[in-house]
Write a structure and sequence with these properties.
The complex is a heterodimer of chains A (361) and B (360).
Chain A lengths: L12 E6 L3 E5 L13 E5 L1 H11 L4 E4 L1 E3 L2 H13 L7 E3 L12 E5 L8 E5 L15 H8 L1 E7 H5 L2 H16 L3 E5 L9 H11 L5 E3 L2 H8 L15 H14 L5 E11 L2 E10 L2 E4 L3 E5 L6 H14 L4 H15 L11 H8 L9
Chain B lengths: L14 E4 L3 E5 L12 E5 L1 H11 L5 E9 L1 H12 L2 E9 L9 E5 L10 E4 L15 H6 L4 E5 H4 L5 H14 L3 E5 L4 H5 L3 H13 L4 E3 L2 H8 L14 H14 L5 E11 L2 E10 L2 E4 L3 E4 L6 H14 L4 H15 L11 H8 L9
Parallel strand pairs in B: 1-4, 1-8, 2-6, 4-5, 8-9, 9-10, 10-11
Antiparallel strand pairs in B: 2-3, 6-7, 11-12, 12-13, 12-14
Helix pairs in contact in B: 1-10, 5-7, 10-11, 11-12
Classes of the chains: A alpha/beta (361), B alpha/beta (360).
């Protein structure tokens, strides 16, 4: 059974996402956070990255969030605008001069190498978006009047605060009622909430999800489904065990049409094995396997997969093409610094079809 | 507010500009002959005004221009979006070898006694190939536009670009827009095809459709063919020289309702005295003079024009409009690159006589 996506001509947006975008500060190269004299600034956030990538591919995307009206909020606005995404539903809050009331969140990300893992350090308390409450955004108008083909949010947003979890539910319900496809990236973040709380919140959301994205750890920690045969470090992934788990998930929640997952094995900081697998309408589709993929920065790879695979689904590609496109886009995204996509659709298509890295001239 | 400029209140766009997008390579204070690296700025005299009005002044603006589909075009398009300017592109397919190209402007910053040096590679420039009929003006200005702008750089690119300006101005005027033109005389550009005589002829035909002119003394002389002052000015900052020339401009083009310019005395690459004056519907006004520590002078004139237009667009009186332009142009020289990084609060505070005391 295929996904029933609203017609493009009836909708103002191809995709709308809801979530936080943070300013990311990274030491150049592989320097340590505590010793670097210089930080490079990027912008990113799990849900935001999907709107960003798809806008760059010429799709009509928008992003809903809450930003502080000061130069830090404007930094994110400028980054967002450069992709071409629509920001008309962003709520702006006045800056109180000190950030006691509402802040822009930061994360400090150190890009690891060799045996040293990447480190992500949050400084994201009291953010403007974490204070978003039900009723702040007129979802009925957005989904009913402006109309949206695809709505995307995820577990990072839901973990920000109690009220964000309520807004996730409110927005997903409204999207679902308006016939918008709802996708949700489980994205478990242990620093933001416990597994117990995540399961409690997410169970209420699942009935409204059409397309679910998550890795094996996410299913365990956010939905409470175990994959048989994984070890503690998740170093080698038993694909068969994973498939059985997904079958259990869709049996428990028959509203879920598709499930996308990236499979990452960390060989070393900058060398990962990478592939993706997708469940769609009762069948599993596996992507090409990128063995010993040399990466520059892993952050955003999963969102890169998600945006590629949503692009495929919105363009009536076959399930096999969708999973290949997602995996290729996620792989390419990890060749640049920063969380957001800098690759072109032409490059993605080239890699997806097995093209090599021979210089083009 | 001056009654001379009748600005429509309901419009989809506050401001639409027509002109070429370029990328500027900036090696900082190192001259190109010794440079090993440079920054890439996205610019264009006409575009800069739209970008400043969108980013700093938060107006709804657009740019009508050529876009070559290759990575340099992509880079430029991304920065256009980042500034919040809505593009209307006529696309050109790049053949992978020699164009059509987005123009390259080589421009260092100079230092002290060494002036900045500017030269171009505008060979096979996409924007120079623009011609009447390339744009659907009805659609572009159809939702309403309050102000339409173009300039002498775009007019100088080729035989056809001046005609595109006239076409755009006519359409904008029909849609109720105020029309402005920044004379921005660039001798190097005119010399490769028309020369100064052609410049005067083309610009005169364009100015027939303009309500507001921006240009310095040299622009008025070379762009409009107005004779220079009979008596040598005491100083570059003496507004009377400029006001003397205005009378001649208005006599030649009686429909023009406002003329404005920056007054700049360059003591060194890093130290300018800076002022601005305007004539609006018969009344003259001048901004104060301030001393500028200049980081990057490029874009200062466009910075003035955008602040001045913002003032007139939002109903400020002529005096306040000149001060806003003067303040924004001054702030622009403190940023690298050609477009604004200032905020409206900073501009207002400087225009009101604020200082550079740290704000905390």
């Amino acid at each position: 059974m295929a996904l029933k996506v609203l017609k493009a001509s009836e909708c103002e947006f191809d995709l709308l996402s809801l979530g936080e975008c943070m300013i990311r500060l990274s030491p150049p190269g592989h320097q340590r956070i505590e010793l670097t004299p210089v930080f490079e600034a990027y912008a990113g956030g799990g849900e935001y990255n999907v709107s960003y990538a798809l806008a760059r591919y010429g799709m009509r995307t928008g992003w809903v969030s809450r930003l502080v009206d000061n130069p830090l909020g404007h930094f994110i606005r400028n980054h967002a605008q450069a992709s071409g995404m629509d920001l008309s539903e962003v709520l702006w809050v006045q800056y109180d001069g000190s950030g006691r009331a509402d802040r822009i969140g930061f994360n400090f990300t150190e890009v690891g190498m060799g045996v040293r893992a990447s480190v992500s350090l949050y400084d994201r308390g009291h953010t403007a978006i974490s204070h978003l409450k039900p009723g702040d955004i007129d979802w009925k108008r957005i989904f009913g009047k402006r109309r949206v083909r695809w709505f995307h949010t995820g577990g990072i947003f839901s973990a920000l605060s109690e009220s964000c979890a309520e807004v996730a539910l409110e927005s997903m319900k409204a999207a679902h009622d308006a016939g918008t496809i709802v996708s949700y990236d489980l994205n478990f973040r242990s620093k933001l909430w416990s597994s117990k709380k995540a399961i409690e919140v997410t169970k209420k959301l699942v009935p409204y999800i059409d397309v679910l994205i998550g890795n094996e750890e996410d299913f365990q920690k956010v939905l409470g489904f175990e994959v048989e045969g994984t070890d503690e470090k998740l170093s080698e992934l038993p694909v068969e065990g994973y498939k059985k788990m997904v079958e259990k998930v869709v049996k428990a929640y028959p509203n879920i049409h598709a499930v996308g997952t990236t499979l990452r094995e960390v060989v070393s900081g900058l060398v990962n094995n990478w592939s993706a697998i997708m469940y769609y309408g009762g069948t599993f589709y596996e992507s090409r396997k990128y063995k010993n993929l040399e990466i520059e920065d892993r952050v955003g790879g999963g969102d890169g997969f998600c945006s590629g695979f949503v692009y495929g689904l919105l363009h009536d590609m076959s399930p096999q093409e969708c999973v290949e496109l997602g995996a290729a886009h996620g792989a390419l995204l990890q060749t640049t610094r920063g969380d957001t996509s800098m690759v072109t659709m032409e490059e993605t298509m080239h890699v997806m079809k097995g093209g090599g890295a021979r210089i083009k001239r | 507010m001056s009654k001379a400029l009748n600005i429509r209140q309901d419009a989809k766009f506050d401001f639409i500009s027509l002109g070429a997008l370029v990328h500027r390579l900036d090696p900082g204070i190192i001259p190109f002959r010794k440079a090993t690296e440079c920054r890439i700025h996205v610019s264009g005299g006409e575009f800069n005004v739209a970008a400043n009005l969108a980013d700093c002044f938060r107006l709804k603006t657009g740019i009508v221009t050529a876009m070559a589909d290759y990575p340099i075009g992509d880079l430029i398009a991304e920065r256009v979006r980042a500034m919040g300017v809505q593009p209307f592109y006529r696309h050109f397919r790049h053949n992978g070898v020699n164009g059509p190209n987005m123009a390259t402007v080589y421009s260092d910053r100079g230092q002290g006694i060494r002036p900045p040096v500017v030269f171009y590679n505008r060979s096979n420039e996409a924007a120079a190939q623009l011609k009447p009929g390339d744009f659907k003006w009805d659609e572009i200005v159809g939702g309403g536009v309050k102000w339409f702008h173009s300039g002498g750089i775009f007019a100088a690119l080729s035989e056809s670009t001046g005609e595109v300006i006239i076409e755009g101005m006519k359409a904008a005027k029909k849609a109720g827009a105020i029309v402005s033109f920044d004379l921005n005389f660039r001798g190097k550009l005119w010399n490769i095809w028309g020369g100064e005589k052609k410049a005067v002829e083309v610009v005169a035909r364009i100015v027939e459709h303009a309500d507001v002119l921006v240009g310095n003394e040299e622009d008025l002389q070379k762009g409009l063919g107005i004779p220079g002052p009979e008596v040598a000015a005491k100083s570059k900052l003496d507004p009377s020289t400029f006001f003397g020339m205005i009378d001649k401009v208005v006599k030649k083009h009686p429909h023009v309702k406002a003329v404005a310019t920056t007054l700049r005395e360059v003591h060194s690459s890093n130290h300018h005295s800076w002022s601005a004056v305007a004539w609006v519907d018969g009344k003259t006004c001048a901004a104060p003079t301030c001393e500028l520590n200049v980081l990057d002078r490029v874009g200062g004139g466009d910075g003035f024009a955008s602040g001045f237009f913002y003032g007139l667009l939002t109903g400020e009186d002529a005096e306040a409009a000149v001060r806003l332009g003067w303040a924004h142009g001054a702030l622009l020289t403190t940023f690298p690159g050609d477009t604004t990084m200032a905020t409206l609060e900073q501009v207002r505070s400087f225009a009101a006589g604020g200082s550079a005391r740290i704000q905390r």
